[in-house]
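Researcher: If only I could read backbone structure tokens as easily as an amino acid sequence. Walk me, if you will, through where the backbone shape changes along the chain. I have put the entry right below:
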Amino acid sequence: MTAMTTSISEVLETMCFMSLNLPADKTCDDFFKEASGKVFGCEIGFSGKVNGKMQIFMPDRLIRTVTENFMGQDPDSIEESLLEGTLKEVINMAAGNTFSIYDSNEVFNLSIPEMIEGSAPVKTGGEELSLYIETMDGNMAAIMTYEA
């Protein structure tokens, strides 16, 4: 959990100039209950010392801000394919950094990030770690499911 939290914070703060808050009294279920409008979801699989997947979900407004900060583009003129590409890059960097923090001596293989149809978590069993993340521009959710 610490590695995932640190990684997501580093990626969004360093690459997208966003500060984060992780409220202890909120869950990913709260994110999906509160979310309005379109929510973009993306997942990346991993294998190595542990196997599983990481998923990140952001509402349209937040992913537009992330894309604007990351790519330097006006959020109102950004096409959906660029929003999806940004989310794929964010999850790729977050997953890679998570495993580097978790165990820098272990090799983890990452799959190609894919958008999640329906933008809701896909449960697969195993252990689950989840984060409800607040930013100034909206809230997001990150979920990691894994099996050792």
